Amino acid sequence: MDRPRYAAYEAIAAVHRDDAFANLVLPAILREEGLFGRDAAFATELTYGTLRHLGTLDAILTAAAGREVQRIDPPVRDALRLGAYQLLHTRVPAHAAVSSTVDLVRAVGPGATGFANAVLREVAERDVDAWVAQLAPSMESDPIGHLALAYSHPQWVVRAFAEALGGDLGETTRLLIEDNERPPVHLCARPGRVDAVELADEVGGAPGAFSPYAVYLGGGAPGDLPAVAEGRAHVQDEGSQLVAAALTAAPLDGPDGRWLDLCAGPGGKAGLLGAIAAERDARLTAVEVAEHRSRLVAQATRGLPVTVLNVDGRTVGEDPKLPEQHFDRVLVDAPCTGLGSLRRRPESRWRRQPSDLSSLTRLQRELLGAALRAVRPGGVVAYVTCSPHIVETHVTVTEAARRSGVPVDFVDARPLLPAGMPGLGDGPTVQLWPHRHGTDAMFLAVLRRG
Ligand SMILES: C[S@@+](CC[C@H](N)C(=O)[O-])C[C@H]1O[C@@H](n2cnc3c(N)ncnc32)[C@H](O)[C@@H]1O
């Protein structure tokens, strides 16, 4: 059997059968199968592409099979998804996509080879645009339903994006298209260790458009880079760099040596904040509730002026290491739905549910409340999410500030980002976007305690 396709099938099946994460399970499968170079790249493209386009593929397979895709045996269903992806989204010739999928079905669901052959031949009758035209509701009658099917996102996610974009469906469409692209790897050149231009030269990449620390990697595995192994750089989306650096750019009167990161795991932003703290004689306390993630924070900040605490961030005022009114700058990079980084996690759009929002927003409010207790009068708090969902952004910030009983003012976050950055809106908060900035959709609100 074709090994790259088998590897892709195994990864997709593990995501659906075992709730695995594609970015973790696929590298292990590629190693087991001994796949490198072009074969590994092909298997990766098939896996990620199939998972991203799953919603549209399933609608097409349902029509082609004449029965709900959910009623097809799971191994055969995943093989068909992989075959349909090749037919509709790659340059693989139709006969090769069909015959390799039938071979796969012979191994994973032997009774279904005739069925698989017939369904894929039906899928191959049209291209993806013709299928969408046939199956999606019209843009006029049901724009959210249309965009969801055409660009393979759940309807509730499309609705949330459209709302955060002020109802602009043209921009929403550009965002959905961007979510289906393979995102480039961004590196963060750690200040004091390496300069972004030097790092770009060293790794054959290009300096980032906005963050002074960002380098866009051209290709290759970032884990193999000496700069990453030696702690001069780490992998981090440019948007994450910008919002972490914004906290350190907020003007402050008085002392500026005690910084706090209340949700630090696995340590990307703590790594950047720690490197900036080292240059400014400050010290960062990095809090993470999950033990294994707090160990990752310790690894990510080795050699930097960072103290890692494996405690619940909501214990400010109870834990003697987290006194109230003590810190000058506080970051709350809150747990969230992650709807702003769907490009990087191909299966996550199908896993997340609107029902996740209520427990997450409660936790977000409590953590931001704790941050407002931890910061000293005159100090600043940055609230960050990698989600643009307004319930996790504007609603959480407004509610947490209102309930905190602490006097706070919004600081305009736009001047805390590099000069000349386009598309930052009317302030005082900032929402970054993949289709506008090439970053994850990070949200940033900066509050100053009165
Ligand atoms: C969005 S992630 C933070 C990412 C991190 N700042 C970075 O840049 O690598 C949120 C983190 O908050 C942690 N967390 C969740 N609840 C927490 C709590 N009550 N106290 C402290 N950390 C918490 C999660 O385990 C998770 O690691």
TrEMBL record:
The active site is at residue 386. Residues 161-450 form the SAM-dependent MTase RsmB/NOP-type domain. S-adenosyl-L-methionine binds at residues 263-269, 288, 312, 333. One of its GO terms (molecular function) is RNA binding. InterPro entries: MeTrfase_RsmB-F_NOP2_cat, MeTrfase_RsmB-F_NOP2_dom, NusB-like_sf, NusB_RsmB_TIM44, RCMT, RsmB/NOL1/NOP2-like_CS, SAM-dependent_MTases_sf. May act as RNA methyltransferase. Belongs to the class I-like SAM-binding methyltransferase superfamily. RsmB/NOP family. This is rRNA small subunit methyltransferase B. It comes from Micromonospora musae.
